[in-house]
């Protein structure tokens, strides 16, 4: 039996759109195939074959008509691609048999025909290509290896190769036949003296994408990574690999990106085996996946490692089982055990190695997040598990969808490094200390030294805003970027930025208004600190003016900001209690020009505890620069007592202590139930009923002497 290198089949094709160096870049279909057998052992050539291919759309570009001379009428009479490929295989096999050969290798003028046209089109039409289309010889690379002085590979053309070896080109044949005959001339010349070249280097096309884990210590070349945008949210790594069919993706080289809430955002980072495949992937910009077009851009190795890299030994052990299908489960009850999950999946979906094939995602303190990853040995088991999508486990419905090794790493990195919502640290000792000269509360007024960004992409982070600001970033106050969340704790598309002066704010609003951020234009308006405070506290800001946050108890709701004078002592602020290790120290604000030096204006949560406040009051939006709590936190201790004495002296007596807000109370909960819940803590007043206020939302207020960490 002859080896693959004994027989080559010179192969050429053309599409209904761009050809030559842009072949396959416009996603057009094949319309012409030409081939000829070359017996390398005898230096003989076979019969020249040419056949037309009927595309689904016979709309030919002007370039195609000019270069090929084909018409729509001719193509309508041709056979579809599947039939043409069968004819090709039968014709070549019969001719090889007559030559005493049994195997062959395709030879093409560059990889575009195989990688950018044939494989993507066959994938879209669900055609199974013969094995011969997964290996080929690139004539340009063989010529460069034989004649390195002819120039770089990317600059080689058929004309330049023929000129280098001093062979006149064939010009009188019709399109397709002319190109194949010229390729055969070059091959025969390389086989003869003085070159005596051996065609031995085979290019391969991966049959399937291999999943795998990636370590953060691994070196990733930035020239091999792209970012794909606009993906359907349910896309898996196999779907993305199918979109890039024909190009070789590195093992574990597909990383689906997640947003701040841990859900897929329609983007993925893809790592290829080399820069050549990356460059061909960039030519698939705005090609289609189903009915959606996918944008393809350059990315860096650092971006890929940030998403796909991991350091957890548990994850590495979980992903060490190769050729496994990964399914992500979301919405699990926090009390769910491995046995519960295995029982939910059932015997028709056996998990690989039983409980070892389950990976529960947890917070750093060990609390479950409700997510888990499951390994299945084959596609059939995974499909059976996906049929249980949104079925009930306990009292919750469970979401199941395909996942990837990179997504496992990303989810574990996200939850294990820092919780999505900052947890309350242990309280500091309640001791008196000298009053700070400038307390950490934001000063409010009508000075328009802030700007409001409206229409941000929901995936925008602090880094994106700083890049959007450009040279004006230097004029932002320290920790002065505030992301606004909606009532569900998700990005609202708004943000506020505190500038160093009103002049700077005006300049930014003029220069950055309707500037683009991630394909969206962002509106930039100048505003005041007062307007910013209203919105961050849950109010609305629109053309009709300010709408304060909703309030349920009129007696506890001051109509506007409350001013107070500093007392000789100060208890640590609520912001200090809530301060996350990721957040910078709250800045010291400037005193308002219209108020006395020792007077502070603040929006007191003590007086608004019963309103439906947004999460922004307690938790910053992830990621965030400042702690928004530090600007609105009620001053506890004696400072809080002074405020309470002015606003509601009968309800909040001036005693040391702090307020605790309770959410999610049963509607039938009474005072005794609340006191039982706080058993072991000492309360200031004797008449507890006067200190407990239960709103219609099930939120209560109570004032213990010690701060309670709930």
Give the oligomeric state.
single chain
Rounded to the nearest angstrom, the radius of gyration is 34 Å
Per DSSP, the total helix count is 21
Strand content: 15-25%
Subcellular location: Nucleus
Main location: nucleus
GO molecular function, one term: RNA binding
GO cellular component, one term: nucleus
What does this entry look like structurally?
The chain is an alpha+beta fold and 710 residues long. Helices cover 26% and strands 23% of the residues. It contains 21 helices and 33 strands. Strands 1, 2, 3, 4, 5, 6 and 7 form a seven-stranded mixed β-sheet that branches. A five-stranded antiparallel β-sheet has the order 10-11-9-13-12, with helices on both faces. β16 (358-362) and β17 form a beta hairpin. The longest helix is centred in the N-terminal third of the chain and has 19 residues, at 81-99. The chain is globular. The model is unreliable at 418-442, 547-655, 686-691 and 694-710 (pLDDT under 50).
